[in-house]
Amino acid sequence: MSEKIYVGVDIGGTAIKVGICNENGDLLQTYEGPTETDKGTDAILNNIAAYVRHIVSESPFQWEQVEGVGIGIAGFLDIPNGIMKFAPNLGLRNVPVRDRVQEALGKPVFINNDANVAALGEAWAGAGKGVSDCVCYTLGTGVGGGIIIDGKIVQGFAGMAGELGHMAIVPDLEAIQCGCGKMGCLETVSSATGIIKMAKDAVERGDRTSLTAVENIMAKDVFDAAKAGDEVAARIVNRAAFYLGKSMATVAIVLNPQRFIIGGGVSKAGDFLFDQIRDVFRKFTPDLIQEGVEIVPAQLGNNAGIVGAAGLVLRS
Amino acid sequence: MSEKIYVGVDIGGTAIKVGICNENGDLLQTYEGPTETDKGTDAILNNIAAYVRHIVSESPFQWEQVEGVGIGIAGFLDIPNGIMKFAPNLGLRNVPVRDRVQEALGKPVFINNDANVAALGEAWAGAGKGVSDCVCYTLGTGVGGGIIIDGKIVQGFAGMAGELGHMAIVPDLEAIQCGCGKMGCLETVSSATGIIKMAKDAVERGDRTSLTAVENIMAKDVFDAAKAGDEVAARIVNRAAFYLGKSMATVAIVLNPQRFIIGGGVSKAGDFLFDQIRDVFRKFTPDLIQEGVEIVPAQLGNNAGIVGAAGLVLRS
User: Fold this and answer.
1) Range of weakest confidence among A11-20, A75-84, B172-181
2) A5-123+303-314 domain in CATH 3.30.420.40?
3) Distance (Å, whole) CA A284 – CA A26
4) B163 with A286: Cβ contact below 8 A
5) Nearest one of B163, B186, B63 to B113, comparing CA atoms
6) Confidence category of residue A182, pLDDT binned at 50, 70, 90
7) Number of A:B CB contacts under 8 A?
8) Which of the residues A151, B24, B265, B286 has an alpha carbon 20 to 30 A from that of A259?
9) Which one is the CATH code of A131-298: 3.30.420.40, 3.40.605.10, 3.40.50.620, 2.40.50.140?
């Protein structure tokens, strides 16, 4: 009974999810409670501690077996000091989250941002298990990223490493402005938002496409139309895949990781999307740098955040 | 007298340079002897060991103070096993260099490729001193690179990380083929070779430029002409700087390093070149990722290899 356990906490705007992992990253138990953002900072911090104590008390494990607690959270973090500088969706400002939870629990606490934590989860116990260097892309509303080298998150000087959605990858002539203010970012073409925009533009232009009949176009509609043979939709998917593959070729030159892991809603399009990405990656990457390198789907789904948070305890 | 010392070895085709560093990376003493490539593998390995013993015997230090020996070498290395798979300029094939030198000296030996080692030298004791995340560019015949994260070399899955000269950065319409077989690599425009080619092309096209009068154009001639107001030469320098700055913007998105260090012959053009690179970097990098980030010249010159090799002992 001396097995060590690792508790992961994934803090969202409405719910706090907690989970217990063993040293292999197997998720043994989960629990979820309300964040209660409206009740303020103290309530949120008390809830984190309460849910961690609760899940352990309901598990077959003893409190003494808890080796540490990891927290994944969205917002601008001062990671070395464990301070949340600003979390818009939680209303937190300059809160020493790490130290406050550590005091409440009497266990070592680690904190990192949600995208990095999800990447660590996949690298530790998901699609990157056993691989020391992985790069993760999350294709959702935007394009998120996380970089794992030697099994650990690459943080960057200002904690901004892995912002892969903002690689300026679309050539000037075709580039549109990104929400970040720069031109031609990857997420302007390869996120769900980018795919939907390209589809709506095509419909407005009067292109011959079955998407004209769709009321409120979603990324899935574009993939379904492309798979059914719609040429306009196929071109849009191809463009999203092209810039993803090209960005991976660039990342491969810089870091030569063994595995690229793609998660998020858009990645559910499966091999139809992945095969196109792989083709582009092969075309643009020097042979010695693509040998043995794989582009694979994420495996943990929404649990990547909890698992990765637990992984912070071992991989920090 | 219990100070520890670190011996660095820089193996070139004609000479083996060795140096003694203290724990701060200060280069205290150097020695250089012939490689004797023509005498074969055993002679080269014997020379390495002999020169290391020699420099220590001539120094004020005792053999017992040698903490370890690091080796930088050009070629295809199996770094985890310390085996030189193929070094074209030394004629080595499948030689367990690390273990053989370790046996000969009875000290821990570390080995890595020359570009990575030079980057480590600059990061440890040169232009990146005190900074944990640096990216180095070497602008010479090609464009070399080396990436240091948390003070250590990023190796990559196949030991190919940091091949920055082969980032596909020139857009398709303007791209030419690189020696690596791919199109539009950074080194086709930003290496000395690339700059010379652009200059020769301009002369052949009949562009109005003072370079027409130069017999055998070197990169320095192009910079001199550009500084003197030659518009054609200025455009060439601007293009070399543009793609360097753009590639740094991309690397910044991926890794968010604190410092970019540029060395090699072309970097001697100084602020005339650096200011243009900085402008492009500022333009293409999101604000949060460029804050506090510097682009600076390398400081150690040809000693980067020896110093970085010594650094392998502490930073492996």
Assistant:
1) B172-181
2) yes
3) 36
4) yes
5) B163
6) confident
7) 117
8) B286
9) 3.30.420.40
Using DSSP's 3-state secondary structure scheme, residue B15 falls into strand
Specify the 3-state DSSP secondary structure of B201: helix
Asked if A171's CB is within 8 angstroms of B171's CB, the reply is yes
First-to-last C-alpha distance (Å) of chain B: 25
Cβ distance of A249 and B168 shorter than 8 Å: yes
Cβ-count burial of B244 within 10 angstroms (0-12 exposed, 13-18 middle, 19+ buried)?
Answer: buried
**Inter-chain CB proximity B182 and A286 less than 8 Å:** yes
Across the interface, of B161, B162, B289, the residue whose CB is closest to A160 is B289
Nearest to A293 among B149, B157, B163 (CB): B157
**What confidence tens digit (pLDDT) does each residue in A201-220 have?**
999 999 999 999 999 999 99
Around Cβ B170, how many Cβ atoms within 10 Å?
22
ipTM above 0.95 for this complex: no
- Other beta carbons within 10 angstroms of residue B120's beta carbon come to 36
- For residue A12, the distance in angstroms to the closest alpha carbon of chain B comes to 24
Of A158, A246, A256, the CB nearest to B289: A158
Q: What are the sequence ranges of the domains in chain B?
A: 5-123+303-314, 130-298
Q: Which tokens in the block code for residue A26?
A: 């197997």
Residue A14, both tokens: 């409405």
Question: Is A166's CB within 8 Å of B257's CB?
Answer: no
Cα–Cα distance between A71 and A84 in angstroms, integer?
11
The helix, strand and coil proportions of chain B, stated in percent and rounded to the nearest 5, come to: 45, 25, 30
Retrieve residue B247's tokens.
């590639």
CATH architecture of B130-298: 2-Layer Sandwich (3.30)
- Choose the mutation target among B78, B172, B243, B253 for the interface with A, i.e. most A CBs under 10 Å: B253
Question: How far is the C-alpha of B74 from the C-alpha of B77, rounded, in Å?
Answer: 8
Count of C-beta atoms within a 10 Å radius of residue B197: 16
Closest Cα in chain A to B76: A288
